[in-house]
Amino acid sequence: MKKTILSCIAALCCVSVFAQDEQGSGFTIDLDVIGRIDAVGEFPLGTGAKPSYNSGNSVIYTKLESSFAEYFNLVWAAHWANTGGEQIPFYSTPDLYRNTLLTDCTDWTDIFYIDFTMQGFNFRIGKDCLALGGFDYEAWDWDVDFATASSFWLNNASYQWGAQVGYTTPDESSNFTFQVQSSPFTYMSCSNTQTQYPWVNGIGTYSLKYTGEYGPIYTSNSYNFIQSNNWGSGASKGLHILALGVMGNFLDCASVGVEWASRSDDGSAFCSQTHQVDMLASWEINDFVSLEGKIGWEKIASAHEMDFYGAVPYDRLWGGITANVFPIPGNKDLRVMATVAGANTRVQGFAANSMSATLGIIYNHTFHLKK
Predict the structure, then answer these.
(1) Residue 304: CB partners within 8 Å, gap ≥ 6?
(2) CA-to-CA distance for 250 and 190, rounded, in angstroms?
(3) I want to staple 82 with a disulfide (CB 3.0 to 4.6 A). Which of 59, 139, 210, 343 is the partner?
């Protein structure tokens, strides 16, 4: 871990030196430092089980964004510490460093890529989020409340190494992306633990994504094929995903959206195994207070996909509402959040109901290191 941190400091120093060499050439560096602290109470209903308490999505992140040589951009989002291992396997702070470069787990580097943009075309290489449609992955991880996240978001290793090419239309209303990345379904071999590293097994993730913004309407859609080295057969060996989402923005202060996703581990049974439907809304009441709400349903029948989640069939209905308060006038660096959520979960015919309450504080400050 010490070597990792020292390497990152050295990398930042190199960037700073390069910035000095690029004076007058439009070189910029913005560094965001983000800290979040959660206190969560979970309350099972009707089972006699006692309440439990945890620290939710408490994290420390940095996000560095730099533009240089007119057409190039660098983005690096680093995930230094968290307490999410209480809810998500292999997600504790030590796990983040033990998992370095493993594709089936989350590690300390969420995003690290360089892209080149010219005349509407974009070429990107490095580590980035899978190009998934809908809105599950629109928010940065530090803005997500575990209680209102889907099972796929909670359990899928969505940051992978690879490359992509994209095109944005001249009026900037539509974007088309083709992405090739490593696969999160690289299961460890008992005789060769190296099989979890990117591309060692020769399997990957292939994604087509389309987003469009037309007046108040925004849409995000994708088809993804995530290959696996452990299950399936033939050309369909892996997980097929179709994700569609549409959102309307109203009065510059409110939005309402719906997303649908279908996942299948057999191409011949595409769209028949797993379904997820979410509805979400937000309302910025004023400069100090905003509200967000989400309700979702997922029905998972794929035993292979449930390698992440547990037994099948798995059926979950959940929802929650979040109030955000920005206590510093004219500044949104500091945010206080309160979420109340509930869920009904059915696994192999057994049902469980629960409620949760989360109180969180997030601080996100941007340092303009170079303009």
Answers:
(1) 228, 230, 231, 232, 239, 265
(2) 54
(3) 59
Q: For position 249, what pLDDT does the model report?
A: 95
Q: CB–CB of 362/337 below 8 Å?
A: yes
pLDDT digits (tens, 9 = 90+) for 273-295: 788 999 999 999 999 999 999 99
Residue type, 31: L
Give 89-95 contacts, CB < 8 A, sequence gap 24+. 94/1
Q: Which residues contact 231 (CB under 8 A, 6 or more apart)?
A: 237, 265, 304
Query: What is the number of alpha carbons within 13 Å of residue 231 lying toward its C-beta?
Result: 15
CA dihedral 321, 325, 330, 332 (to 10 degrees): -70
Within 10 angstroms of residue 254's Cβ, the number of other Cβ atoms is 15
Query: Among 77-91, 287-301, 323-337, which stretch is predicted with the lowest mean pLDDT?
Result: 77-91
> What's the whole-number mean pLDDT along residues 172-193?
78
Structure tokens belonging to residue 17: 């030196």
- Rounded CA-CA distance 368/371 in Å is 7
Give the H/E segment covering residue 348: none
Structure token digits, residue 7: 């390497």
Q: What is the mean pLDDT of the chain?
A: 84
Burial of 184 (0-12, 13-18, 19+ CB in 10 A): buried
**Predicted TM-score of the model (pTM):** 0.86
